[in-house]
Write a structure and sequence with these properties.
Oligomer: single chain
Number of helices: 10
CATH class of the largest domain: Alpha Beta
CATH superfamily of the largest domain: Amidase signature (AS) domain
Number of domains: 2
Mean pLDDT: 93
Strand order of the largest sheet: 1-3-2
Number of strands: 10
C-alpha cells in the first residue's frame, strides 16, 4: 500500500481494519512533507507534536473498539483560511502573521469530530485574492509539484500542491472565482465547488459579514484524489451549524439523484477568448462522448466572446 498516494477512503478503511496504524500513516505523511515541502512551499505551518498525540489516541481508541468517525486516524492539512484553534491562521495577510484563533472553524471542527488529524496549514494567495497563483508577503510563493516553473493556481494553491505531492490525502479549499477549480486542474487533483450555501462559512477568514454578492457566491468545498473522496468529505462538512444562518437545511443524503438519460448537458470544446490546448479539447470531447453513450443528451455549445471591460466592471461592483 502506497500510503501517501492512497485515497482518503482507502486510508480510513485500512486504519479501521488494522492493516496500518494511524501513527504509521501520520509518519509517512510527515516524511513526505520533510522530503518535498522545502522545494514546493505548500505547507507553511505545522504541529507534528499534537498530530502525534492525536494519532496515538486514535490507535488506542481503535484497540478498545472505538471508532471516532469516517476519518478515524486520517491526517490532513487545511488551507490557511480556516480558523484552527491553537494553530496560526493568516490568509497570507501580514497583520495576521501571528494570529492564533481560540476556536476552530465549523469545517475544521467537523473534520476533527469525524476522526481526522490536523497536521498543518497550506499556503494561500494573500486574502484569497487570486485564483491563478499562490504568493503572499509572509510565506512567499508556492510551486507546482509537477513543474516548479509553473503555478499551482490559487488561492488554494498550497492545498492542491500538497495533495498532488502526497503530503496530505485531502484538503478543504474555498472558491469564489475559481480558487478550488483552478488549482485542482493545474495540479491534477479532484475539487468540488458545491452549490452555494451548503457548507457553513463560520470561521473562514476573510469572514462575515461581507458584500452580499460575494457572501452568496463564496463556497467551501473538498479537494481530494478521487470523486469518491469528494463525496465522503462533502457529507462531513455540509449542513447548518446554527451560526451561518444562510446555509440550507438540506441533508446530503436527500440530494436528488438523476438518471443520466434525464440530463441535458452542454459542452464547449473551444473558448473564443483564449486558446484551448489540443489535449484539453480531446479530453473534453472524450468525456462528452462517454456521457452520451451512457444516455445523457449532450449538445455542443458556442460560448460568447468575453467582454473584459464588462468583466472588470462587474468584479468592481462585487468587491466594492
Amino acid at each position: 500500500m502506497d500510503i501517501v498516494f492512497s485515497s482518503t477512503t482507502q486510508l480510513a478503511a485500512a486504519i479501521r481494519a488494522g492493516h496500518v496504524s494511524a501513527t504509521e500513516v501520520l509518519e509517512a505523511h510527515l516524511a513526505q512533507i520533510d522530503t518535498h515541502n522545502p522545494a514546493l512551499n505548500a505547507i507553511i505551518t505545522m504541529d507534528a507534536e499534537r498530530a502525534y498525540e492525536r494519532a496515538q489516541g486514535a490507535d488506542e481508541a481503535l484497540a478498545r473498539g472505538e471508532v471516532w468517525g469516517p476519518l478515524h486516524g486520517v491526517p490532513f492539512t487545511l488551507k490557511d483560511a480556516h480558523a484552527t484553534a491553537g494553530m496560526r491562521t493568516t490568509t497570507g495577510f501580514p497583520p495576521l502573521a501571528d494570529y492564533v484563533p481560540q476556536e476552530d472553524s465549523t469545517v475544521a471542527a467537523r473534520l476533527k469530530a469525524a476522526g481526522g488529524i490536523l497536521i498543518g496549514k497550506t499556503n494561500v494567495h494573500m486574502m484569497l485574492a487570486d485564483p491563478a497563483q499562490t504568493i503572499n508577503p509572509i510565506f512567499g510563493r508556492t510551486k507546482n509539484p509537477w513543474n516548479s516553473e509553473r503555478t499551482p493556481g490559487g488561492s488554494s494553491g498550497g492545498a492542491a500542491a500538497a495533495l498532488a505531492a502526497g503530503m496530505t490525502p485531502f484538503e478543504i479549499g474555498t472558491d469564489l472565482t475559481g480558487s478550488i477549480r483552478i488549482p485542482a486542474h493545474f495540479c491534477g487533483v479532484f475539487g468540488l465547488k458545491p452549490t452555494e450555501q451548503r457548507v457553513p462559512l463560520t470561521g473562514l477568514i476573510p469572514g462575515l459579514p461581507g458584500p452580499r454578492p460575494i457572501r452568496i457566491m463564496s463556497c467551501i468545498g473538498p479537494m481530494a484524489r478521487t470523486v469518491e473522496d469528494l463525496a465522503l468529505l462533502f457529507a462531513i462538512i455540509a449542513g447548518p451549524d446554527g451560526r451561518d444562518t444562510e446555509v440550507a437545511p438540506v441533508p446530503v443524503e436527500e440530494m436528488p439523484q438523476l438518471e443520466l438519460n434525464r440530463l441535458r448537458i452542454a459542452f464547449a470544446p473551444t473558448f473564443p477568448s483564449f486558446p484551448v490546448a489540443a489535449e484539453i479539447r480531446e479530453a473534453v470531447e472524450e468525456s462528452a462522448g462517454r456521457l452520451s453513450a451512457l444516455g445523457a443528451v449532450v449538445e455542443e455549445a458556442a460560448l460568447p466572446q468575453v467582454d473584459f471591460q464588462q468583466e472588470l466592471a462587474s468584479a468592481g461592483a462585487l468587491i466594492g
